[in-house]
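Notes taken during the Thursday session

The instructor put the following on the board and asked us to keep it in front of us for the whole hour. The protein is Type-4 ice-structuring protein. We were told not to look anything up and to reason only from what is written here. First, the residues (113 in total):
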Amino acid sequence: MKVAVIVAVALLALTQGSFGQEASEVEKIGEYITNLKTQIMSSVNAQDLQSQLEPMAAQIQEQLKTFATTLEEQVKPMATNMQAQLQPMVESFQQQMQALIKRLADETKALGQ
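Then, after some discussion, the predicted structure tokens were revealed:
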């Protein structure tokens, strides 16, 4: 509808003007109107495209949230289980390191005496 109004106004302006205008000026006006129409059409197409893509983007975002929630629900128990299995190994390693450090400290003291 915007395009029809613009074209009608342009045609009215052309018919109101003097008929003695040079052909080159009429061609320039015609090119201007064509360029204007093209710009308006691309703007309308971009707006249509944006209005079509916005619901899709919202839908994809919602699906990603659902996927993330599901993934978290699946990974959390595995992580807890892994931590429970690793905790005794970490504690054992820590005790071994403390014993090694104590032994090295004792040997260092013995050498210093």
